[in-house]
Amino acid sequence: MGYATQLLQRCEALAQEGGAHALHLHVLENNEPARRLYARQGFRAVASPQGWWPPRRLLLRKILV
């Protein structure tokens, strides 16, 4: 497991311990490696690209169970 995956899983665990029900993050629209990582971890886009100047940001969310 890579460092980024470990970090995301630790963030998720801390959020759940703190009573959070979801995690949100922004990612640059053209950052395909990061978008793939987040998708593998269960993050989904919840808002269309923001801003008018490329690269634009996407808002991603993961519901915590």
Strand content: 25-35%
How many helices does DSSP assign? Answer: 2
Give, in spatial order, the strands making up the sheet with the most strands. 1-3-2
Q: Give the CATH class.
A: Alpha Beta
Describe it.
The protein has helices at 3-17, 32-40, and strands at 22-28, 44-50, 57-63. The longest helix has 15 residues, at 3-17. The chain contains two helices and three strands. It is globular and about 35 Å long. Helices cover 37% and strands 32% of the residues. It has a single domain (3-63), classed as Aminopeptidase (3-Layer(aba) Sandwich), CATH 3.40.630.30.
Sequence-ordered SSE layout with sheet pairings:
Layout: H1 3-17, E1 22-28, H2 32-40, E2 44-50, E3 57-63
Antiparallel strand pairs: 1-3, 2-3
Compact description:
By secondary structure, this protein is an alpha+beta fold. The chain has 2 helices and 3 strands. Strands 1-3-2 form a 3-stranded antiparallel sheet.
List keywords for this structure.
single chain, alpha+beta, Aminopeptidase, three-stranded antiparallel β-sheet, 32% strand, globular
